[in-house]
Amino acid sequence: MTPELVIERYRQIESNSGAYGARNAFVMLTAIINYALIRHPGAIAVNPLNVLRLGKHMKKIEARTDRLEGNDFKAFYDGLQKFNEITRDAYLVCLFQGLRSEEAAGLKWENVNLEKQELFIPDTKNRQPLHVPLCRQSLTILKRRQEENPEATPFVFPSLPRPQCLNKTGHVRLMAAELKAKTGLNITIHGLRRSFITAARRLKIFEDADRLTNHVDASISGKHYDGTGVDDLREPLRKIANEIERLMKEGLGAKVIHFGNAHAMGE
Fold first, then answer.
1. Which residue, 187, 149, 191, 192, is CA-closest to 171?
2. Beta pairing partners, 108
3. Buried b (16+ CB within 10 A) or exposed e, 151-169
4. Nearest CA to 146 among 173, 175, 110?
């Protein structure tokens, strides 16, 4: 593998998946090849990916701070109308629940309890189960998806049949590049999670926001004394989701977004 080929391939991935995606992919591949160099020194003489580091081709990744602010919420909602309904709903649930990209995209019906209005994901990025309530807005979306799920697939947000979608996982793919292109915003999927947390903190909701987004409390109190349950999180989630809905409605008119009857839900 020549240096030119390595650089060209890196640029391709960087263009399609962003600087972070490209860097992450090549860092992991570099580690694998370095391991192979130690285990099989006769088969591999040098790591061809070193050209990226030595030539400073990989961009330094700064901490991301992207999130929706002010009129961005309206632009975000407008842009979502350019997606198919399944993908649009996946983005909305991601925002209203503060979910990680893979948690929303790969959500299965077995992890959703519409009767109890709860969401339970046993395996998450930090290996801690996520057990949280569902807000009114998410409930409306999930009920719609249940009614329109023609093949009873295990995924809440199944991928579309080919040739419309080439995703082999069986569920939608939430991609930052496409989200940016259709909304005109410099926003990533994780930026939606960051928007949820920011909305919560501006409402002076701190610890409960951490619980809702599965941020582990490593303190002694958090590990051994905190008995907070799902029902304790319903009111803070209601406030956060309603604030996000309000921000999206500003300038749109009350008839544009329908997430169910707030009064009927005790709101």
1. 149
2. 155
3. eeeebbbbbeeeeebeeee
4. 110
Q: What is the helix (H) or strand (E) element at residue 209, kind and residue range?
A: helix 207-212
CA distances from residue 139 to 26, 60, 100, 237 in whole angstroms, order as listed:
40, 40, 18, 13
Is this structure's pTM higher than 0.85? no
Two tokens, residue 19: 């600087």
Contacts of 199 (CB under 8 A, 6+ apart): 240, 243, 244, 247
Q: Mind listing the pLDDT tens digit for each residue in 1-60?
A: 788 888 888 888 888 777 777 888 888 888 888 888 888 887 777 888 888 777 677 766
CA distance 88 to 79: 9
**All domains of the chain in start order, with CATH:** 3-54 (no CATH), 72-249 (1.10.443.10)
Task: Convert the pLDDT of each residue in 78-101 to its tens digit.
Answer: 999 999 999 999 999 999 999 999
